[in-house]
Every structure is written in structure tokens, then in C-alpha cells.
Specification:
With 239 residues, the chain is an alpha/beta fold. It has 2 domains: 121 residues, Rossmann fold, CATH 3.40.50.2300; 101 residues, Orthogonal Bundle (Arc Repressor Mutant, subunit A), CATH 1.10.10. It is built from 8 helices and 12 strands. A 5-stranded parallel sheet has the order 2-1-3-4-5, sandwiched between helices. Strands 6-7-8-9 form a 4-stranded antiparallel sheet, with no helix packed on it. It starts with a strand and ends in an 11-residue tail after the last strand.
Length: 239
């Protein structure tokens, strides 16, 4: 099995040295930089399996780094490490394209569990069974390139939108609860809220539905979750 290649962007010297040492003890390789702007350049020019990204950094803060990375259509998984650990901070981290959010101080064991969970989810997403273009009516979505063609023309999706949609399309006609979506896409350790899922569903519908308020493809099961209808029939309930 290929070693996971990790980029650590952290300006706290003792913490960074400890994290790097523990990753290498777990048979991972780890590059380390201390500035946000340098981290951004490394991410865009390198090939990493995961980025561990502090939020409060010299040069450029972690949220801005993540936002720039996603704007460049770079989908490398990002795990935020930060003392900024309110619910609003976590929501902002997910909304900017982060994959997980771990508050400081943290135990190394918990960090390693989060890393392995992200790598597992990434491996699931890369499963070739759903690679290439998946059709919905006359339109399509490409999970490999995070894009598609919908009623309003070409669209781009983020990592989480694609992961949610892939999970729904793999099981057409089945209602998948918000809890299951949170667990499969974010992991139970990440502590996002059901509001987070709903916000990403809104983005998916804007891309896929002729009228996002009257969905045909991504239906709401009220108080439960969501379902992909492969026939594209009108929803019986408002979302």
C-alpha cells in the first residue's frame, strides 16, 4: 500500500514537530510549512493525499487558503486544526470546502482517527464503480471531474456536493437520512449539523433542478433526509 503523503501547515513549533513525528511513526510521509501563503503554493503545486491546515497563520489564514484551493478546482482533502472551535467556525470551515475540523488542544490518537477516516472516505469516493458520467434524464454529472450539465447549462460542484450526490445516486429510490449523510460524507467525529447537509442540498438542486423549489431528482423526505429519484418525477412535498 502506498504511504499517505500529508502536508502540515502549522506555525506552532512544538505542536508541528509532534504531529510530524507521529505521522511518520504511522508510516505516513509529512511535509511541513509554517505560513499560509507557502502552504497554498505547496497544495497547488504538489500532490498530497491530505492537508492538515491551521486557521490562524502568518501570511494567509487557513480559511482563505482553503477557499483559494477550492477556487482553483483542487480537491485535496483538508482537515482544519485550530483553537477557533465554535459552531460558526466549524460551519465556515465546511462551507469553504474543508473536510473535517479538529479543535485544539487535541489528542494525537483522535487526530490519527480523523486522518484515517478522511482517507477511507476519499477511497470510497474514488471507487471506479461510479466513475465517469452518471445521467439524470437528458443531463449528466461527472464525479471524477466535479462537473456536469443541467437544465441551466454546465455546472461545477464541490467535493461535499459530489459526495452527497454520489451517495444518493448509488441507492436510487432509497431515502437516506441526514444522520447517514453526515456519517458517510463528513464522519461522525466532524460534528457538522443537519443544517450543513441542507445547505449542500440547496447547492445541488440549483445545479440539477429546473426549479430548485420544485425538485424532480433530489427529493426531501420530511424530517428524515433525501432521496434520488431516477425517473425524475415531481416531488410530492415541498423541500
Amino acid at each position: 500500500m502506498t504511504k499517505a503523503h500529508i502536508l502540515l501547515v502549522e506555525d506552532e513549533l512544538s505542536l508541528a514537530e509532534g504531529v510530524k513525528l507521529n505521522l511518520e511513526m504511522e508510516d505516513m510521509t509529512c511535509d511541513w510549512v509554517m505560513r499560509g501563503d507557502e502552504g497554498l503554493q505547496r497544495i497547488l503545486s504538489g500532490s498530497y493525499d491530505l492537508v492538515l491546515l491551521d486557521v490562524m497563520l502568518p501570511g494567509m489564514d487557513g480559511f482563505s487558503v482553503c477557499d483559494r484551493v477550492r477556487a482553483a478546482k483542487n480537491r485535496t482533502p483538508i482537515l482544519f486544526l485550530t483553537a477557533k472551535n465554535t459552531e460558526d467556525d466549524r460551519v465556515l470551515g465546511f462551507e469553504t470546502g474543508g473536510d473535517d475540523y479538529l479543535g485544539k488542544p487535541f489528542q494525537v490518537r483522535e487526530l490519527l482517527l480523523r486522518i484515517r477516516a478522511i482517507l477511507r472516505r476519499e477511497a470510497w469516493y474514488r471507487d471506479r464503480a461510479m466513475a465517469g458520467r452518471q445521467r439524470f434524464g437528458p443531463h449528466w454529472v461527472d464525479f471524477e471531474n466535479y462537473c456536469g450539465d443541467g437544465p441551466h447549462g454546465p455546472f461545477q460542484l464541490g467535493v461535499k456536493e459530489c459526495m452527497i450526490l454520489k451517495l444518493l445516486m448509488e441507492q436510487p429510490g432509497r431515502v437516506i437520512s441526514r444522520t447517514e449523510l453526515l456519517d458517510k460524507v463528513w464522519g461522525e467525529e466532524a460534528y457538522p449539523t443537519s443544517r450543513t447537509v441542507d445547505n449542500f442540498i440547496v447547492r445541488i438542486r440549483r445545479a440539477m433542478e429546473a426549479d430548485p423549489h420544485r425538485p424532480h431528482w433530489v427529493h426531501t423526505a420530511r424530517s428524515v433526509g433525501y432521496m434520488f429519484d431516477p425517473e425524475g418525477r415531481p416531488s410530492r412535498e415541498e423541500p
